[in-house]
Amino acid sequence: MSTAAPAVAMRGIRKRFGAVQANDSVDLTVAAGTVHGIVGENGAGKSTLMSVLYGLIQPEAGTIQIDGTPVQVRHSRDAMRHGVGMVHQHFMLVDTFSALDNIVLGAEPDWRLPVARAAARRRLEALMRDSGLQVRLDLPVEDLPVGERQRLEILKALYRGARILILDEPTAVLTPQETDQLFVTLRQLRARGTTILLITHKLKEIMALTDAVTVMRAGRVVLDCATADTSTDALAQAMVGRRVQLGRADAAAPRPSGAPLLQASGLAWRDSLGVARLADVSLTLRAGEIVGIAGVSGNGQSELLDALSGLLVPDAGTLQIASRTFTVARWLDPATARALAVAHVPEDRHRRGLVLPFAAWESGVLGYHTLPRYGRRGWMQQGAMLADTVQMMERYDVRPRNPQVASGQFSGGNQQKLVLAREAMPQPQVLLVGQPTRGVDIGAIEFIHGRLRAMRDAGGAILVVSSELDEIFALADRVLVMTGGRITGEMPIESCTEAGVGCLMGDATPSGIGPVMPALAAT
Amino acid sequence: MTGSSQPLPRWFDLGVLPVFNLALALLVCGVVVLVIGMDPGQVLALLIKGAFGSRIGVSYTLYYATTFVFTGLAVAVAFHGGLFNIGGEGQAMLGGIGTALVALWLADSWPAWIVLPLMVFAAAAFGMAWAAVPAALQAWRGSHVVITTIMFNFIASALLSWLLLNVLKEPGNMTVESKSFGPGAHVPAAHEVFAAIGIEWPRSPLNACVLLAALAAIVVYLLVWRSRPGYTLRAVGFAPEAARYAGIRPRAQVMFSMALSGALAGLVGINEVAGVHGRLLLDYVVGAGFAGIAVSLIGRNHPVGIVLASLLFGALYQGGSELAFEIQGFSRDMVFTLQGLIVLFSGAMAQVAAPTLARLYFAFAGRRALAHG
How far apart are CA A279 and CA A268, in angstroms? Predict the structure, then answer.
């Protein structure tokens, strides 16, 4: 691969946003027909670099060569003309249009739509046979599962002549099965000569899929090597700039179980379509333990969290917290939950955990704004709110450490740290955490895991729901597996194996979506 | 991570941008004026002179602005609660009815220091009640407030006509209006107040309600940004799911923000019915409720902005009537055209020029930073 010109050669790319040097003389060389990983923490500059390549951002300095030819990319149209396609993390699809119409949109081969559709369909069917990307072309996008929407996005890029494909965090929204299938597809694409640039911060994916990897930190390239010559530890260290300890810190001895702090029994709930989302779920959280709920997203974990935090009233079941018992007739509500020292870090920090336009100090008291120290006769005690938020930011290392910055302006990791800091502030007895580190970079994952362990060691009962099996294994003392709204397995961490848990999770695999987590079983 | 998402400095966003939009609006107005064969300079000079050039002009400008502050604040409060209250018109009418009922009932026998506070209270309470019905329909039945508040404007108008024709009309009077309020309902006019402290001031509709409007703006600021109810109101407005997560009950919040909004709109009744006419009549709201939407939009839903936008609108109304009076052939419709253009550029298209200006600003700021760096 050294004889042919590289598919992409970017030299000396510089781009500054305000005070931030997003790209500082970045060089990137991608050999044709390879999968090239680009990793880095949030804000390391990898998305900026890809936006430069795709023509969304104009750099202040630097050159781009594609297949050895210098090119000017002033617009994404230029990028597409040179065979560069991009699949964004958030899909650019019209939900109500059919998959076919989404592909044709903006690249109609004929002004008569039926003719255009027929022509496009012929080309697409050939393309699908060729690339192994199967998409049901006639279904509206809103009816397609997420994995298929992503295949549609890739197909769309290929249809427009992409030979170099940029994928921005492609697995962030996928279930493990869909991720496996995506990898199969990407390998097939590589086999037919497509060059793939994969932006991610999941190092396992880099190791599993890529041929070469570039690590960025603070706008610079800090490591550039063949994947075979590196390891996840080395990559993590390069990304963060220091040694990172992920996974279990020690083989902790089985701890004596404490008093039960929260007991739920027989929870059941059907959604408005009559689908059973929770069926006979019972669990106990004890002082000084972390209970992990493993499972493929959408198997009732979110509903369970909502029921336990008072956001959802189930159809059946009871809940006991401290000495209070709640029944369906009088269920817990969020304010009461907080009063009973049950804190909740919601799965969706953008929609629930924070009010994005609020300043950090306003989001920093969300849910606790009725505490006496935050108000006097209905007036907010801004001083107390600011002081507490500053303290939270100190303790949880939230950056920038400015309580006046709008909540939406923080990076994902810092937002999550702020939410966690807020929920930990009143030293709750029970902490319910949904997806503690979704979209959070490695340094912050290490930090958040450390904090959760510390709270456990201080006698808290913690429930962690995560779709990342690695995270469950790193944190939990006891693992519950949820499939189809039921708890299908329970085991102490000592007797857990990835294969065993994966197998239990796999019960939920809808027929026809490929094998059960072979990647996990293999590791 | 895209370039355009950098925040602009506050002074630029709140100072330069609105001034630029206003200038753009005036420029287009100038072209329109030129097209119909008049001198834009002369028209603009007359407009400004009419609004601010004399004590009487200033008085009228402030009087109009008073009404716009009330309706503008009403729209803004509902907006922060995530609701679009288009019912300011009807709520203002009900506020007038409340004012009038108290005045007709008590003002002949009771002193002003008892009656006036009661009238203010009734104006707010009637406006509040009128907004509470659509609010309840929204909170418990999911009927969209935009639709229901519009319908309630028509019902309010019909109710007002019915009341005037069948209940409150003075026997023997040919015009459709109530009898004059008694002495207890007299709101001090500006010229009376100034006369009392020895300053001669021309007669105008400007009255003590202008102070009430200023007070309302301050109270709204404190309530929305400094109080706990304001905090929950904004939380619901920005992120209903986060509010629910925080233990805030959204239904109560819908009721609260609409009630507050309706009360503010109801206060228009005090200014127009008690402050100016001294009796209840048919057309005292004349679109002020709808103008409040534009005022709130231009004022960025903030009390300071709303006061400034109200002054702008007051000046347009007053200067506009002066124009129609002074220049032959410059009709009332022309004045509406000018007002419409200003709403278009400063309100509806307020952010259109923002990206271009931002690029210019950052190019300039960047060059300066390089020169210094």
Answer: 4
Domain boundaries, chain B: 61-287
Phi-psi region of A514 (alpha: psi -120 to 50; beta: other; left: phi over 0): left
Tally of CB atoms within 10 A around A264: 21
Q: Are A2 and A14 in contact (CB under 8 A)?
A: no
Instruction: Give dist(CA A165, CA A196) in Å, integer.
Output: 5
One domain for residues A288 and A435: yes
Does A277 lie in the same domain as A309?
A: yes
In a domain, A399, yes or no: no
Model confidence over A203-213: pLDDT tens digits? 888 999 999 99
Domain count, chain A: 2
Using DSSP's 3-state secondary structure scheme, residue A144 falls into coil
Range of the domain at A324: 260-349+429-522
- What is the structure's pLDDT at A513? 35
Longest dimension (CA), chain A: 76
DSSP H or E run through A516: none
ipTM of the complex: 0.82
**At A491, which CATH number?**
3.40.50.300
A200 domain residue, yes or no: yes
> For strand A486-492 and strand A478-483, is the pairing parallel, antiparallel, or unpaired?
antiparallel
User: Does residue A459 belong to any structural domain of this protein?
Assistant: yes
Encode pLDDT of B278-296 as tens digits. Answer: 889 888 888 888 889 989 9
Contacts of B362 in chain A (CB under 8 A): 18
pTM here is 0.80
Count CB pairs under 8 A between chains A and B: 80
DSSP A229: G
Shared-domain flag, residues A206 and A330: no
Q: At A18, which helix (H) or strand (E)?
A: none
DSSP 3-state of A40: coil
A306, closest residue in chain B (CA to CA): B245
Residue A479 falls within a domain, yes or no? yes
- Secondary structure percentages of chain B, helix, strand, coil, to 5: 75, 0, 20
List CB contacts (< 8 A) between B359 and chain A.
none
| Cβ <8 Å between A375 and B242 | no
Q: Nearest 5°: phi and psi at A270? A: -110, 140
The pLDDT tens digits for A388-426 are 999 999 999 898 889 999 998 888 888 999 999 999 999
